[in-house]
């Protein structure tokens, strides 16, 4: 089982959307028994909060199902639990390294490192552009699935 943790600042937009988009993709590919997905935040600001309503609306528009979400902050023990920790932007990696001080197993990357054009995923909390965020996340998840070695 491959365990993937998506990480953003608050865990109410990008990382939560990534979790549900990836779950949808792996279910459609028949890989739900081989890949486990979750999400978390680097900050404590939104702990316990559900996904941001515009993020839900975008997932609804794309026919991506989701469940009630509870934002949570990543913990040091998550490093041992997950095989991959995929951040949305460099800022998340910097903050993550304050919590998980070292990355000896090279688990921490940007989600879009798995795309043809590695880059940050802009925070739609500030940009309001949930279409662009969705497209970037989808691109990253598709690229990631192509590169994973599933046993």
Under CATH, the topology can be stated as Rossmann fold
Number of strands: 4
Assembly state (oligomeric)? single chain
The secondary-structure element order is: EHEHHEHEHH
Number of helices: 6
- Reported CATH architecture: 3-Layer(aba) Sandwich
* Low-pLDDT regions: none
Enzyme class: hydrolase
Keywords: Hydrolase, Protein phosphatase
EC number: 3.1.3.48
GO molecular function: protein tyrosine phosphatase activity
Short synopsis of the structure:
This protein has 151 residues and is of the alpha/beta class. The protein has helices at 14-28, 53-61, 76-81, 90-99, 124-127, 130-147, and strands at 2-8, 35-41, 84-87, 108-110. It has one domain: Rossmann fold.
Name a few traits of the molecule.
151 residues, alpha/beta, Rossmann fold, four-stranded parallel β-sheet, Tyr_phospatase_low_mol_wt, EC 3.1.3.48, hydrolase
